[in-house]
Design goal:
Shape of chain B: elongated
Order of helices and strands of chain A: HHHHHH
Radius of gyration of chain B: 19 Å
Shape of chain A: flat
Organism (chain B): Thalassospira xiamenensis M-5 = DSM 17429
Pfam families (chain B): CbtB
Number of strands of chain B: 0
Largest interface: A-B, 51 and 32 residues
Strand content of chain B: under 5%
Structural class of chain A: mainly alpha
InterPro entries (chain B): CbtB_put
Radius of gyration of chain A: 20 Å
Distance between the termini of chain A: 12 Å
Number of strands of chain A: 0
Keywords (chain B): Membrane, Transmembrane, Transmembrane helix
Oligomer: heterodimer
Protein name (chain B): Cobalt transporter subunit CbtB
Strand content of chain A: under 5%
Helix content of chain B: over 70%
Structural class of chain B: mainly alpha
Number of helices of chain B: 2
Largest sheet of chain B: none
């Protein structure tokens, strides 16, 4: 069981992570680099002169982008391990996981680790004001944990008590509120911040659908191999 | 009957333990790559942390 989970998670996480990294480098990284020109003060928003919206943000940086690819693959391998462990747990209780319904598992994963925390702590472009990082991390983990429990209750709960509890768990972190900065002091144009958040969500959704699809596929393949 | 119950209990346990181990292993990877604030890790994973929606700095 251990080998089967780890093997399928390595394949699924590496494949989904690699695609996610390439998509991020193409769609998200230029926005991030553009924002860093404002973060470092190379460009000034609402300064004396109007600033062109079209900037040369440089090309590929082998070390920096290579590390990004490596770390994205690691993050999605970590996610795949958790996802496939959850799939194995569900199968142990009579649910059958396939590549096709793995997509639904992937969408659930996106909602849990991207959309739920990002709904209040939006994906931040560099150079925006934010509260203390440790406080935000605590809120992030608490929100992901409650969202995970809520999604499980929605999927496998059988009555309104379970579904009602799920709604409360989904809403609670946002009603309580996330750590917010005291002042808005970010020097980055709002257009870049909005584009960054939208693209981070978009790539996150694609990456998670692929993680779920590959997880279901490799999980089934390893099962056939064992059978 | 007793033997069957015992065998069932063992198989349940032998399934749950690796599941739990893998989940914890996965969380550890996400925590180290995405959240640990040590300078070296933070700098190496900086762009990924932003793009993946983790609180970064």
């Amino acid at each position: 069981m251990f080998t089967r989970i780890v093997t399928s998670a390595l394949f699924a996480g590496a494949a989904a992570g690699l695609i996610a990294a390439l998509l991020q480098l193409y769609f998200v990284q230029p926005v991030l680099l553009h924002a860093e020109l404002y973060e470092t003060g190379a460009l000034v928003h609402f300064g004396g002169d109007a600033v062109s919206a079209h900037q040369d943000v440089g090309g590929i940086d082998p070390l920096r982008d290579g590390l990004s690819i490596l770390f994205t693959m690691l993050v999605y391998t970590g996610y795949a391990l958790i996802l496939i462990a959850a799939m194995a747990f569900a199968e142990n209780r009579g649910h059958v996981v396939t590549a096709r319904n793995g997509i639904i598992w992937g969408i659930a994963g996106f909602v849990i680790v991207h959309f739920a925390p990002g709904f209040t702590l939006a994906p931040e472009v560099p150079g925006v004001a934010a509260a203390d990082v440790y406080e935000r991390q605590i809120w992030w983990f608490a929100t992901v944990a409650t969202a995970a429990l809520a999604v499980w209750l929605i999927a496998f709960g059988r009555n309104w008590l379970a579904w009602g509890a799920a709604v409360i768990l989904l809403l609670a972190p946002h009603v309580i509120g996330a750590p917010e900065p005291d002042q808005f002091s970010g020097p980055v144009p709002t257009e870049l911040g909005a584009l960054f958040a939208a693209r981070a969500f978009g790539i996150g959704a694609v990456a998670w659908v692929l993680t779920g699809l590959f997880a279901g596929h490799f999980w089934r393949r390893e099962a056939d191999r064992e059978a | 009957m007793t033997t069957q119950t015992a065998a069932f209990a063992v198989s349940k346990k032998s399934v749950l333990l690796p599941i739990l181990a893998c989940a914890v292993f996965g969380m550890a990877i996400v925590f180290v790559t995405g959240h640990v604030q040590a300078d070296l890790l933070h700098d190496a994973a900086h762009d990924v942390r932003h793009a993946t929606g983790f609180p970064c700095h």
